[in-house]
């Protein structure tokens, strides 16, 4: 990383110069303020951002580690949880905690149900969990962290999980079931009622990941859109996660994980009574919990109100429909499945059109594009800010499709080559190995930032992954005597 600061300065620098340097560092960051991004940021404009900064700053130094020392934070958290419970139709016994984000909420649900199984079914030595293959990767992380096996059920052409396949994956080692409302890749709400029925019959806990839709679907449903039941109204749903910093429009670092009652949630909590530093207890993963994010979440819910959320949900859904209709009007493109919310993916239906090359052209025009695989597609998560750029995006997309069709060789260069190669290598461990190398470089002593927009580096990654696959294939044939 050129000109990187690698030691603490001997003397403190001028505050104005520091702030200017920070501003300079961000010049090449994704342009979310002009709605050029399709994930990561849920921006409502400078007025709302200034309000969040003030609310966050008011509790900037407070620490949620000790709720007795900062009872204001405990009250904020309690009220946020109660508001979320009410929104998601939990009963009076429903409980929960705030977390640092969706990943922590998802991890906690995995940990909770592992420990619930340890308490109720201690004979299970190799716990497993079942989910659709479109479940968020945070659950794969949770399975790896907490020593479970995640069994993924396939989805059909409509993007909905194959229930028969899902049910077949449940066995005597299964400790919990999981599904999404909606899933991140394609925006489909999983068949929550049907999976809940299976959970009741099998006497298994069932977690609905509403990190994306928890603070959005309730308002979409009130607007009259056909949203299938997904929350605590469904008997058999025992827990939910929902991110306040997504469609709750709070400051980053705010989510909730909710349980139908304390019989479940008590297995989330950690208590150690014999530490030299005293008795230690925490309700979630983190010890220190930033007071600012808790306070800003409370402030946001109260400022927005149901009316504010309904207004923004209306804008988002209308914008999403405009975008999807515009994409469907391009003969070479299709929407994946039948999205029910504000997130969707679209792919090429023309064998001569490489969708990843289309993404390269869009990025040349200043759009930050998310690429997906299985199937190969581009991804969009719509926010109110996108209302103003629909026509420009569709115009650029049309031109990108025309250009790539006229130049099919673009599929063999740049990011298109890398993503195309990665998507088609069947031995996925090869990809994992190469991506791990990139991560090790990024977080190593030199802090090398790979420029995957560079054709050379992109093709190099694809080549290394491809060579690794060829080598593995030869070794497999050799061992089999073929």
What would a concise description of this structure say?
With 482 residues, the chain is an alpha/beta fold. The chain has 15 helices and 13 strands. Helix 7 links the parallel strand 4 (174-180) and strand 5.
Task: Describe the structure in your own words.
The chain has 482 residues and is of the alpha/beta class. It has helices spanning 15-25, 46-58, 71-87, 102-120, 137-146, 163-168, 192-202, 217-222, 262-265, 291-328, 355-364, 390-406, 414-424, 428-442, 455-480, and strands spanning 95-99, 128-132, 149-153, 174-180, 206-209, 239-243, 255-259, 270-272, 280-282, 333-335, 343-348, 370-372, 377-381. The strands form three sheets. A seven-stranded mixed sheet has the order 1-7-6-5-4-2-3, sandwiched between helices. Strands 10-11-13-12 form a four-stranded antiparallel sheet.
């Amino acid at each position: 990383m050129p000109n990187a600061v690698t030691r603490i300065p001997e003397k403190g620098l001028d505050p104005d110069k520091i702030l200017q340097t920070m501003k300079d560092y961000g010049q090449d960051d994704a342009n979310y303020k002009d709605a050029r991004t399709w994930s990561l940021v849920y921006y409502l404009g400078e007025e709302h951002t200034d309000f969040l900064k003030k609310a966050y700053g008011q509790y900037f130094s407070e620490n949620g580690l000790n709720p007795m020392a900062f009872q204001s934070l405990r009250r904020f958290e309690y009220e946020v949880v109660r508001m979320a419970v009410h929104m998601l139709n939990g009963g009076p016994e429903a409980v929960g905690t705030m977390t640092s984000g969706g990943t922590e909420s998802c991890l906690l649900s995995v940990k909770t149900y592992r420990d619930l199984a340890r308490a109720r079914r201690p004979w299970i030595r190799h716990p497993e969990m079942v989910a659709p293959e479109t479940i968020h990767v945070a659950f794969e992380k949770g399975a790896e962290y907490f020593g479970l096996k995640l069994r993924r059920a396939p989805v059909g052409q409509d993007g909905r999980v194959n229930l028969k396949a899902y049910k077949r994956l449940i066995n005597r080692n299964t400790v919990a079931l999981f599904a999404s409302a909606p899933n991140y890749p394609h925006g489909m709400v999983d068949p929550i009622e049907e999976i809940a029925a299976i959970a009741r019959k099998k006497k298994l806990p069932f977690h609905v990941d509403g990190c994306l839709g928890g603070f959005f679907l309730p308002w979409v449903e009130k607007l009259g859109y056909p949203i299938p039941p997904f929350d605590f109204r469904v008997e058999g749903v025992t827990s939910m996660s929902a991110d306040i910093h997504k469609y709750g429009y709070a400051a980053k670092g705010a989510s909730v994980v909710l349980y139908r009652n304390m019989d479940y949630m008590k297995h989330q909590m950690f208590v150690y009574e014999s530490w030299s530093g005293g008795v230690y207890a925490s309700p979630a993963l983190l010890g220190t919990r930033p007071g600012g994010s808790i306070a800003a979440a409370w402030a946001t819910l109260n400022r927005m109100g149901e009316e504010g959320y309904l207004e923004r949900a209306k804008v988002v859904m209308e914008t999403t429909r405009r975008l999807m209709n515009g994409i469907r009007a391009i003969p070479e493109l299709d929407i994946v499945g039948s999205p029910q919310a504000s997130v969707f993916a679209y792919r090429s239906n023309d064998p001569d059109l490489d969708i990843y090359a289309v993404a390269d052209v869009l990025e040349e025009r200043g759009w930050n594009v998310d690429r997906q695989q299985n199937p190969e597609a581009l991804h969009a998560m719509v926010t109110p800010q996108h209302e103003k750029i629909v026509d420009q995006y569709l115009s650029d997309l049309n031109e990108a499709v025309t250009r790539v069709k006229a130049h099919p060789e673009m599929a063999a260069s740049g990011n298109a080559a890398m993503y195309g190669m990665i998507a088609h290598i069947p031995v996925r461990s090869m990809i994992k190995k190469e991506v791990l190398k990139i991560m090790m470089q990024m977080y190593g002593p030199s802090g090398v930032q790979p420029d995957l927009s560079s054709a050379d580096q992109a093709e190099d990654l694809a080549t290394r992954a491809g060579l690794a696959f060829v080598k593995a294939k030869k070794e497999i044939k050799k061992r089999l005597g073929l």
